Amino acid sequence: MTAKLHEFSDAAALADALADKVATQLATAIEERGAASIAVSGGSTPKRFFEVLSASDIDWCKVTVTLVDERFVPADNSRSNHLLVATHLLKDKAAAAAFIPLYYDAPSIAEAADVATRKTAGIGHPFDVVILGMGTDGHTASFFPHGNNLARALDLSGPRGVLTMEAEGAGEERLTFSFSSLSDARFLALHIEGQGKKDVLDKAKAGTDETEMPIRAALNRARSPLEIYWAP
């Protein structure tokens, strides 16, 4: 297991520390390679982190932002991760960043995944930063327990790109980067808050069945060390 836990006193301290670390990673990528890439997750947990990161003094015009995963809903839908990121991250100094969405108005979600794969083909080889989240069911990205495309999504030998996912706990159909796209990020982090999420994490660490708790793939098989950022 190549995961390291960073504990903080509260969510504000976590957001500050994670934003500082991410800003440093992005600035280093720009200095060394002339550009930087970051894939972020949705949900309520990263809002404070996004707000802090958006004010970071880096060369945002050289940063490309995308999503780890997305619901198959338009960007103006309240459930859209695109809307969340646009509201809380792509503002202030970070308004200068480029953004590549995963949702596209295509006839089917499979066709939308193909478009997203083409649109994101120029970034993420590897990503400079990937920020994962985790649900109380042990899912991360849109790798849901017993999802219809889970085996393909978690296959590290599979191609990079965006896949579709349907699962009982997912609600809408989902678009998600494959594990092979995310697992070798130069900085790979899991951002979780609350004792309940810590308990889920501890349960995941104690077992091996990835179909039951897909977060175990990130804990046990990621190519890059997983940095876990947690606050109660």
Automatic annotation (TrEMBL):
Record field: transmembrane: none
Protein keywords: Hydrolase
Coiled-coil ranges from the UniProt annotation: none
Domain Glucosamine/galactosamine-6-phosphate isomerase: 10-220
Enzyme Commission number(s) from the entry: 3.1.1.31
SUPFAM superfamilies: NagB/RpiA/CoA transferase-like
Top-level taxon in the UniProt lineage: Bacteria
Keyword Hydrolase: yes
Reactions this protein catalyses: 6-phospho-D-glucono-1,5-lactone + H2O = 6-phospho-D-gluconate + H(+)
Known pathway: Carbohydrate degradation; pentose phosphate pathway; D-ribulose 5-phosphate from D-glucose 6-phosphate (oxidative stage): step 2/3
Keyword Hydrolase in annotation: yes
Gene Ontology MF term list: 6-phosphogluconolactonase activity
Similarity field: Belongs to the glucosamine/galactosamine-6-phosphate isomerase family. 6-phosphogluconolactonase subfamily.
Function text: Hydrolysis of 6-phosphogluconolactone to 6-phosphogluconate.
Protein name as annotated: 6-phosphogluconolactonase
Organism annotation: Rhizobium puerariae
Gene: pgl
